[in-house]
Design brief:
Length: 151
Amino acid sequence: MIQRKRLIRLPKLLVLTLGLIVLLSACGDKKQHDEDLQQAFELHKEAIKVRQMAQDQMAQLNANNDSLFVATYTKDLQSISGLLETWDGQLVEVPGFEEEHDHSDHDHSDHDHHHHHDGQQELTPKQHLEIQRHLLEEIQVIAERISNIKE
């Protein structure tokens, strides 16, 4: 009878130990996921800042009525406006940070700024990080094009 109780306890102990190992490893993955999402959110905020600066520069350039400037840069400005619209259409929120995104730091009046949520649940935190990294790089390239236009 005593030996039977030991045999019953051994599997329970084994199950508890395995459960603890699984729980600890899941917490480790969760921590990495949280770090990836936090970093993705930081990149998202930086991209929004760059986007706002680009919008401000575009507004200033579009206000220039000098005929030589207009003749020289109209097509460039139209092309850049299209790139900005496309970029805006690709922007996605980082899950878990929707409430932390401060929309007061940028003006929505001159552009259509939508945050997409479609299919976000299917993306891993690493994928969100890569998307935000890519979006930041894209807006930086667009901002550089704007900066290269001289008034």
